[in-house]
Amino acid sequence: MSPMSADALSLDEHGFPLLDGQPLKLPPKERAVLALLLRRQPAVVSKDDFAQAVWRGTVMSDESLARSISRVRRALAGPGWQLESVYGIGYRLHPPAAGPGAPVAEGGATRWTSVALAAPGVLDTYLHARQLVQQRTPEAMDRAIALLRALLREHPDYTPAAVALAEALTAAVGWGQLDTPAVVQDGLSVLDAAAARDALTPGLDAAHGALLDMAWRFDEAARAHAQALRSGANDPDTLMLHARHLLYTGQAEAAVARLRHALTLAPHHLMLRMHLSRALVQAGQGEAGLAEADAALADHPGQLVIVAFALAIRAMVAPEPDLAAPAWRLTEGRDTPPFVWTVLSFVLARLQQREPALDVIDASLLCSRTTPGEATLYAAPLACLGEFDRAAALLRRALDERCGMLAMVLRDPVHADWLRGHPEGRRLLAAVFGPAGA
C-alpha cells in the first residue's frame, strides 16, 4: 500500500503516521487514533468506530478517548492540523488552511458552529443562559450559573457550556456576587476539564484570561490572552476580552485598536461597541466615545442597558441640563435594575445637582440589596461632588471583597485625578495593580 498523503501528514505502508516523512512520536493508542482519523478524513469518525478499530473490544471510556484525542491535538498543533469535535457524534480531522505551521484563525462562525452542534434542548438552554448573563442582575446570574452547571452534568462533552459557565462566573465575581478566589479557581477547573475533552473548543483560552483578570493576576492573564489570540485572532469575543484586559492594565489606545478590528467582524455586537465607547473615553477621546455610544443606541433601540450607558457617557463627556429628565425616566419602570440608579446619580452629580444626587446615592446604598461591586459605581458620582472619602470607602469595601470589576472602576477617568492624591486611593491602586500602579 502506498502512503496516503494529505499535505505533510501521511501513513506509511504499515499505517504508521508520518509528518514530513518522519514517524510521529505518539503512544500506540494515539497512533491508532490518528491513523483512523486520517484514513476517514474528511469524514467524521464516531465513538463506536474508535472503540472497534482502536480499543478492539476492550472497554473505552469517554475519558480515555478524550485523553487520546487531546494528545493527538498537541502533536498536530505545530503543523496546523485541526481536530474538530462534532458534538454527540465524534471527531473529524482538518488539514491546515494555509499550509503546515500556519496559525488557524478562529472566526465567529467557528465559535457558533461549535455551539450549534447540539440537540435542540441543549442549545436552547445554552442560549437562554447566555441571555441571562447579559442582564447582569444577581438573580439572572444565579439562574444562568445553575443552568450551565446542570447542562454540563448532563452533557459533559458539550464544552461550549464550560466556556459559557466560566464567562458567567467571571461576571458574577466582577460584581462581588461570589467569592472571587474560590470562584476563579472553580472556573479554571471547569475550563481545564473542558480542555481535556476538547482542547480546541473556541473561547477556552480567552475565558481563562478573563477569569485571571478578575483575580487581578494580570501577568498570567496576559499569557492566556496571547494564547487565545494565536488561534482566535478573528473571533470578536476573544478580541473583546483581550481589549478589556488592556483597559484593566492601562493600555486604552491599544484596546481601542483591538475593539475597532473586532467591530469589523461583528458590526452589530452591542457589548463590543459599548466597550469601544468606554475605551475611547478612557483614552481621552471623549467625542469619539460619545459617537460610538450614540451609534450603539441607534443600532439597538429601546434596550435599557444601552440607553443608560449612552446617558452616562454623555454626562461624562458633555453634561447638559436636559440630561436630567431622561435620567429620571430610567427609574420609572417596574423592577428597575440597579445600574439605572447609578446612572441617575452620576448624571445628577455631573450636573452639580448635589442634593438630589446624594439622596439617590444614600437611598440606593441604604435601602437596596447592593453588592460591593455595584456599590463601587457610586464612587464616581461621589467623586464628582468632591466626596472623596466616601468614594474611597466604597472602593475599599470592594477591595476587601476582592470584587473583580474594581480594576475597571479604578481606571474610570473620573477617578484619574483624585485617587493618586488620596492616601486610601494610593493604597487601592497599589493593591490592585502593584506598586507601579500607585
Automatic annotation (TrEMBL):
Keyword DNA-binding: yes
Any Pfam family hit: Trans_reg_C
DNA bind region: 1-95
Domain OmpR/PhoB-type: 1-95
InterPro entries (UniProt xref): OmpR/PhoB-type_DNA-bd, Sig_transdc_resp-reg_C-effctor, TPR-like_helical_dom_sf, WH-like_DNA-bd_sf
Keywords, alphabetical: DNA-binding
Name assigned to this protein: Winged helix-turn-helix domain-containing protein
Lineage, opening ranks: Bacteria, Pseudomonadati, Pseudomonadota, Betaproteobacteria, Burkholderiales
